Amino acid sequence: MVSTRAALLHGPGQDYKIDTVELDDPGAGEVLVAVRACGLCHSDEHARTGDLPMPHYPMICGHEGAGEVVEVGPGVTSVRPGDHVAMSFIPSCGHCQPCRSGRAFLCDLGARLFDLGMISDGRVAHHLGDQAVARYSQIGAFSEYQLLNEASVVKIDQDIPWAAAALVSCGVATGFGSAVNRAEVRPGDTVAVLGIGGLGASAVQGARIAGARQIFAVDPVEFKREQALRFGATHAFASLDEAIGQIRRLTGGVMCDSVICTFSVMRSELLEPALTLTRKDGICVVTSVAPLSQSQADINLTMLAMMNKQIRGCIYGSQSPRVAIPRLLDLYRAGILRIDELVTETYSLDQVNQGYADLEAGRILRGVLIP
């Protein structure tokens, strides 16, 4: 049994509270990790606001993490104590049909992401006194230590800084892959990225690295527009209305080969403007998370069909975590992919609420929690 301080969410609309949680020792196929860094991703905020209702509280949030393996259970073969790992909120078992066909981002274990029990055997292994404790997407990295399934960790080289390892485990991989894999950005393309947080800035970088000629960033916050230009955007606009008019002028009415939606929260009314920015035969990628209760979006179906446009969903950049994380870290090492520059501020575990207040206020691009 291991005791750990953790940031717990006791219900929607509440602040995080720091308390001591008891963790089981690792069982078969499980890994105990000392958490070294965790990104403050907006996806966790959906649980706090209620946009994504959670089935169990209290819950340890945080899913963009990295740490050092302390102990492993029976049958664990991919890591051992002392190894450094990135935590993947998309588990990859390597055995199901999606994993075998190269689509580990759709691993069947994803159906258990918000189960109360462990992926391995379903047992409740996290407790606050007599209460069972859930973990956001089977990770729960807002904690000093965490018990994880082997399918949720990816071994990384030990020279990688903790913050970079944490960010590449979710936001960087998802944003980069949204451009490179799902939007299929090619040299010479024109791309629009709508919403510039850690995800959007990484999509801008993916488009730049893929060779896009024009990259349009859209965000109402001036600081974020400045950051988009820093990461490779060629133009930045404060609103969708401004972007539509200016991009129409800059492209001679052709518009964008691809449009990537990385808004903090996806709303139904945002899809039609995104499609307006998408050229004939273009691709509109929806990476942003929408409120679970939002089940309809109004779009012009005639224009969608007659202009041969595509709307594509995207999770984890449509790539295998075990392939993407080492690959992106190689680009980081080579100085091609900029990750350190994404980190605006670091916070202690006790400052988690301040970190999310800064994120909501648009004062940071990405905050990193150091437990």
Provide an overview of this structure:
The protein has eleven helices and 19 strands. The chain has 371 residues and is α/β, with parallel strands linked by helices. It folds into two domains: 2-169 and 339-370, Quinone Oxidoreductase, Chain A, domain 1 (Alpha-Beta Complex), CATH 3.90.180.10; 175-314, NAD(P)-binding Rossmann-like Domain (Rossmann fold, 3-Layer(aba) Sandwich), CATH 3.40.50. Strands 3, 5, 6, 10, 11, 18 and 19 form a seven-stranded mixed beta sheet that branches. The chain has a six-stranded mixed beta sheet with strand order 8-7-2-1-4-9, with no helix packed on it. The protein has a six-stranded parallel beta sheet with strand order 14-13-12-15-16-17, with helices on both faces. Helix 9 links the parallel strand 16 and strand 17. Helix 4 packs across helix 5 (198-210). The two termini are 19 Å apart. The model has no long low-confidence stretch (mean pLDDT 96). This is Alcohol dehydrogenase GroES domain protein. It holds the Pfam family ADH_N. Its cofactor is Zn(2+).
Briefly, what is this?
By secondary structure, the chain is of the alpha/beta class. It has eleven helices and 19 strands.
List keywords for this structure.
single chain; 371 residues; alpha/beta; Quinone Oxidoreductase, Chain A, domain 1; six-stranded mixed β-sheet; 11 helices; 27% helix; oxidoreductase activity
β-strand amount: 25-35%
User: What's the architecture of the largest domain, going by CATH?
Assistant: Alpha-Beta Complex
- For the CA atoms, what is the radius of gyration? 20 Å
Q: Give the SSE order as H and E letters.
A: EEEHEEEHEEEEEHHEHEHEHEHEHEHEHE
CATH class of the largest domain: Alpha Beta
Please report the total strand number as a whole number.
19
Global structural class: alpha/beta
Any idea what the shape is?
Answer: globular
Low-confidence stretches: none
Could you state the CATH homologous superfamily of the largest domain?
Medium-chain alcohol dehydrogenases, catalytic domain
Major sheet attributes: 7 strands, mixed
